[in-house]
Amino acid sequence: MVIGPLSEWVSAFAEILAVCVALFLPYYTAHRASKARQKKFAASIVHLTEVAETGDETARKELSGFLNVGFLISNNSKEQELITTGMEILRLLDSPITQADKEEINRLLASIKKFA
Predict the structure, then answer these.
(1) Integer angstrom CA distances of residue 101 from 15, 18, 56, 78, 105
(2) pTM recorded for the entire structure
(3) Rounded-to-integer distance, Cα 88 and Cα 45, Å
(4) Contact between 55 and 37 (Cβ < 8 Å)
(5) What percent of the chain has pLDDT over 70?
């Protein structure tokens, strides 16, 4: 049995490697893009919540709009979890904010910050 020249083996290995990269690179790129979008979602929710907590009605409306649009464009469970937590924060911001509400908002913000 003849195993052939080394150049053919190197060529075959390079071809297999190229096929593997071509197959898995799109998945890796999509995963990285999803992680980046999660971080942006989390940072936006945290920022808008902190501004809305001071009583800024415009920030509360922007948070509401952001969460509604985010719900429509989110495509994985972690983004959905962020949006759901943001909706809970928005519900707390809609009523007059008590000290218990502030503590709950801070707890929810802490859970969102783990994504950022």
Answers:
(1) 60, 55, 16, 24, 6
(2) 0.77
(3) 11
(4) no
(5) 98
Q: Identify the pLDDT of residue 75.
A: 82
Nearest partner of 74 among 46, 45, 52, judged by Cα: 45
Does the pLDDT at position 46 exceed 70? yes
Which distant-in-sequence residues (6+ apart) come within 8 Å of 49 by Cβ? 63, 86, 89, 93, 105, 109
- The predicted model gives 34-49 an average pLDDT of 91
> In which region does residue 92 sit, left (phi positive, over 0), alpha (psi from -120 to 50) or beta (all else)?
alpha
The predicted model gives 68-95 an average pLDDT of 89
Amino acid at 23: L
106: number of Cβ within 10 Å: 12
Write out the DSSP string of 25-83: HHHHHHHHHHHHHHHHHHHHHHHHHHHHHTT-HHHHHHHHHHHHHHHHH--SHHHHHHH
Q: Are 105 and 49 in contact (CB under 8 A)?
A: yes
Residue 1: predicted pLDDT:
65
